[in-house]
């Protein structure tokens, strides 16, 4: 006879313990001599010798890996370059340049350039020391320049001594190198002669300060400090509102160019413009030149590479949709036919985020930077070279190899190539070292200023975002349901395509497999698996009430677990104040058919890798979860006891996130309940003052590109219309304050009222923590799924 514990060895250890406890606490039908089939009708036996969650996450990772490997094919389909003339070529790539500018977040108009401001203390000025350092060939000044409202650049301006400059160059150090180190005035940088050599040849050189990878200021004394690199700290507060640390720093470089141009206009000259960078500075030089056609010559040191492993790099290099259109060779095509020098050289090494110090939270994403492999650089360069060759400007792109690809940056050959692009010849003479005239700038204080400016800029944009969303939604007609459905569909499509990322509709056979895992007096449980895409499965637990009658059709409630959970969690016995068992079990005992899906938000870094692999492909974790649910509903609708018109969704915590992101895009769901997650989502993901903000915790996969300017939770809930929607909220739930939840929900209630469906939405506040209450929500399910409540 079947033993319901026979498959426990195939479950995860935590799941097996939960199922064992469940079985120990309940009599089985086997004891009552009521045999049950080992598999559901019309399914194959499920033979899985490992936990479903591990199998699922590993499979999605394999799928994402394959998609990355074929991304070059997808990119080719998105370009139609016209090489017939330079003018036609520029027209053919114009939209790509605009999109590239958007996805790196360099979208705001810069403030008017008024010239570089020299920074000097009153003491130094009165002492006659306005210049920081000098040599016979060069003077060095500390400068500031405006970029955006409330955002400035700071750095060093190097000018030829005793003569007018004949070219302007922005020389960008790696993120961990200060401008002073980059010219040899302090320790900690390579390529210290680069800027001096450029000045020696007659260039005026601006060296900007970058946001570095230290964690000193990554936090808030009233909340917590973390081990986030400063660049990741900016990334986290930027991404949700369509901004990026990369975009901000590209804006700083472009603002510096603005100031060079202002000088030229005043002096009635036109100097050629160059940009050069090492490591992170190489990225910024490369991206700036791709966007800004004023740049005549570009040199990229230790960055150019095949980017299919972008997900292994630090998260602050993650760019939404990048690899659907822009590999490094494609970015180079935005620079063509202007001068581009790629130097294969040693990159500054990054072995991960800062180590966690006492008193700081371990919150940073993993990610490493290593020197690009020479073969990969050559291969990607070859693709870039093709575009220059097609324009008959092949000589304008050069690959310089320093040593074996691991030599120092800014070799003589590379600098010579850069200078040729600004119509200068390199000199073999070694530049003189600088003499320091006064105390160096406080690099730590400057870093704090530059960092805080960007954080505050982001907070300002977050405060503006509700009005931006309101304006964005102005064409949605709420006068009646018909008008709403007609006008809201474009917003639903936009969110799915541009924020979540849409995968093609699955076409594989469902291939359902199942096995009996629990027999209880009021319901039985089958573990189920379905195919979605190659290597991508959907799966979970199906709970069937034991009193189902032949020919009877009942409603289904899909009960979604939270972060790091499994379907077994929705069955387990509880010790809280409200439910004795998991909400899936409780609902099954009320007569609902229940399905508890396994979702791929389990496995710590393993599942978060899916997000990092998918973002450059314009996809996210929910790009897989939505098709999983669509396939699940497709299969559930075939079951003889299921009424496909009465399938509801109820999710807690990360399952609450799912309640906001899946049912609006899966029309088979008749309603959605969000428990322990509904919030002012944009504030939750960007706030630098809220205790439970995602900015301060380790869930580094959470950010969704530009969501704050498109739709927050209120707008997502409105997408459910005319289907019912409910929020379950505990007063002591730390995910957010009641005030945020109530304010966000008020927009939902107003929408349902205005459209004439006010009785289809509810919120239940209760005196409790981050948990299922199961009171108002259960009544909501009974009411809207038309199933009688227990007497």
Automatic annotation (TrEMBL):
Keywords of the record: Hydrolase, Signal
* Domain of life from the UniProt record: Bacteria
Please tell me whether the keyword Signal is annotated for this protein.
Answer: yes
Task: Name the PANTHER family on file.
Answer: DIENELACTONE HYDROLASE DOMAIN-CONTAINING PROTEIN-RELATED, POLYKETIDE TRANSFERASE AF380
Residues in the signal sequence: 1-30
TM stretches of this protein: none
Protein's name in the database: Alpha/beta hydrolase family protein
Taxonomy of origin reads: Bacteria, Pseudomonadati, Planctomycetota, Planctomycetia, Pirellulales
InterPro entries xref list: AB_hydrolase_fold, FrsA_esterase
- Any one GO molecular-function label of the UniProt entry: carboxylic ester hydrolase activity
Q: Tell whether Hydrolase is among the UniProt keywords.
A: yes
